[in-house]
Write a structure and sequence with these properties.
This protein has about 140 residues and is mainly β. Helices cover about 15% and strands about 60% of the residues.
């Protein structure tokens, strides 16, 4: 059994993002992440419990739209498609609006856990990531 130990998957970088909307009134955030899986087996990520905050204002839960399979013995880019309630996100943006306008930056924080499965056995990984983005990077700043 000791030969079946699971090594942590390393987040190498967050390479990009895309924001869109769905027909159901949700915001779709696609994060492209480079992950290194040192294990001799693929890992299936299929469940999340994540809270989103925007510049300190709570923006509700976000959920993984589709499972992601992290390939064995590889360092590759993966798209994680996350869904958030557009009303809660809009409310958080309004609450944080003055700070965002004055600084020209928005800080996104994702906190909670993701669950991966290997051979039917699940493991939760705690997540607490914060990223500060310039409004210019989001296409919202002055040129």
């Amino acid at each position: 059994m000791s030969s079946c130990s699971v090594q942590d998957v390393d987040l190498v970088k967050v390479g990009g993002y895309n924001v869109g909307r769905t027909d159901e009134g949700k915001i779709r955030l696609t994060l492209t992440m480079t992950l290194n899986n040192p294990n001799n087996f693929s890992i299936k990520v299929k469940k999340t419990d994540l809270d989103l905050s925007i510049s300190g204002s709570e923006a509700g839960k976000i959920e993984l739209e589709d499972k992601v399979i992290i390939l064995k013995k590889s360092e590759s880019d993966y798209d994680f498609v996350l869904l958030a309630d557009s009303k809660e996100v809009s409310r958080a943006i309004v609450q944080a609006g003055i700070g965002i306008a004055l600084s020209g930056k928005v800080t996104l924080r994702v906190k909670g856990w993701i669950k991966g499965k290997v051979f039917g056995i699940g493991k939760k990984l705690d997540i607490d990531e914060k990223q500060t983005l310039s409004l210019k990077d989001l296409g919202m700043g002055n040129n």
